[in-house]
Amino acid sequence: MTTASYRIVHGGDSRSFPAPHAFLEAATPQGEARVFLGLRAGAALRDAQLLDACPFVAVELGSECLGVHGGESRGLEGSNLVGFARFRLGDATPSNLVEVVRQPGTRAEALAAACEAFRAAGLAVAVCADFPGRIVDRLLRPYLNAALRRLDEGLASADDLDKTLRLGLGYPEGPIALLERTGLAAHFEVTQALHAALGQAAYAPARRAQVATQRAAA
Residue range 80-109: average pLDDT? Predict the structure, then answer.
């Protein structure tokens, strides 16, 4: 399919695209679609007009649901609006994965056009339903919390926990080393938001993440 032209509307610093990227370079001021970027992307979307005719409208998400920006109605919600986030663990460089969020009634042609725009810029796309944390954080955060809790319990040293996951399961990096590299405080922020949204104990921030956050604020 032909990639839809798009323009970018900036709403502050973007976690998905903090540095130059082919996706940003492909945007044009005359683009028919709209991509709202930044920590205040939702506010910029609310201020925008005449979006119904766009091939797609994409808004950058944090941990929140797309419904915060597009509304919800009896489980039938949806339009030409999609959410997206390029997965980024803490302060690490963003990955090549873009999670694209759809609602139950999202137009198929809008979803396809948005996905094609990301793919055309060399990004990998995974489509998910509208849940807090999307796919990666929903799967990853309980695993990282569990590793921190096993360290607290004295199951093994940090080095041996990491070694077991790397050599036993083939993970490229152990969970403790990963959190130390990308930031325990950042892990706290995400898990706290997911725990508040989902109410599931697996997402409650682990003690060491709480301590790191308190120490950073001291």
Answer: 96
